[in-house]
Every structure is written in C-alpha cells, then in structure tokens.
C-alpha cells in the first residue's frame, strides 16, 4: 500500500544549483519533486536503523 497523502517540504538552495538540478531533471524527463522523493526514500531506507518502516517503504 502506498502513502497517498502529501506534505510540503521547503528548502533553500542557491540559484545556480537549482538551475542545474532542474536542467538535469528535465533532461531525464523527471520532475524535481520526483527526484527529491526518490532521494528521501533512499536516505530513509539506508538510515532508518532499528525504526520500523511501512511495507511500501521497505523495498524500492
């Protein structure tokens, strides 16, 4: 079962990094949000330690 609700995450990044990030995302036909969600998912999986993760978050 996938999580259906969403929450907003606001972050600050310098304009040049943002431009490059958006350019690279577009070149791979991905939105910046898709890439950030993927990165967060990977980070949580790798660093959860002993925390219990929901089934939908355990495997990619």
UniProtKB/TrEMBL annotation:
Domain (Ribbon-helix-helix protein RHH) ranges: 3-58
Annotated InterPro entries: Arc_rbn_hlx_hlx, RHH_9, Ribbon_hlx_hlx
Source organism, top-level taxon: Bacteria
Protein name as catalogued: CopG family transcriptional regulator
Organism: Aromatoleum evansii (Azoarcus evansii)
């Amino acid at each position: 079962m996938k999580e259906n609700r969403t929450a907003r995450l606001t972050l600050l990044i310098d304009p040049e990094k943002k431009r490059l990030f958006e350019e690279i995302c577009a070149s791979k036909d991905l939105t910046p949000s898709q890439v950030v969600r993927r990165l967060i998912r990977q980070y949580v999986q790798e660093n959860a330690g002993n925390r219990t993760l929901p089934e939908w978050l355990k495997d990619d």
